[in-house]
Specification:
By secondary structure, the chain is α/β, with parallel strands linked by helices. The chain has three helices and eight strands. The protein folds into two domains: 41 residues; 173 residues, 3-Layer(aba) Sandwich (Rossmann fold). Strands 1, 2, 3, 4, 5, 6, 7 and 8 form an eight-stranded mixed sheet that branches.
Length: 238
Amino acid sequence: MSLPESLKKILLQLLEESQVVTFLKINLTRLILLVVFLLTIGCGGTSSLVRNYYLLDYPIVVKNEIKPQKPFPIKVGIKRFTIPSIYERDNKVVFRSSQFQLRYYAREVYVAKPNILITDLVAKHIKQYGIFEQFGKEFIDSPDYEIIGSVDAIERYDIGEFGGAHFAMTLKLVHSNDYNVVVEHKFNIIEKLYNPQTSALVKEFSQILDSQTDNFIEKINEFFKDKKFQKEKVENVN
């Protein structure tokens, strides 16, 4: 049984149109892929990634109940705090899903290494309190004491809906000549978060550091407040 000529013409026309559409679809797909490739090359690949930068900060409020009546007559230096290398990787914010697994946020980074930010903020905090007669990072002569510290953890921890701010650290005041510890303060805190934003995480880190630095200052004040300091000897030249 043969098809009518009119029906044959209609079928041939539809076939030709479908081939054209297929051709256009294939070439349009190729064109899109080519444009994406050229844009990737032109923008330098991942270098075009927009990043958000964060720093720890807080307003320092001096509490008179933990501040000495006058500065202790000693010279105290502060050294850059140490931190495990996993928290230094390109200054990226860390998310820990378990004891054995963590990952890094590609877009969420600190403006500097976390241990540098923390050292600078603790130094600023202590200086604001004015508890030492001389305090700073560098001295011509050796200081009497030094503040050293180790950041053990600073990460978003996998608890609850939005995770928790996990911040662990040790602060020490040591004799500069033999590094014997005279004051030590440790903390290991996980605060549950109720906001998914990284800014909320970093704000929580800042608040933890604020309160724990106050605790460290209070311990220093308790240690020195009843100490009798030797006055400098003055030689008379005849």
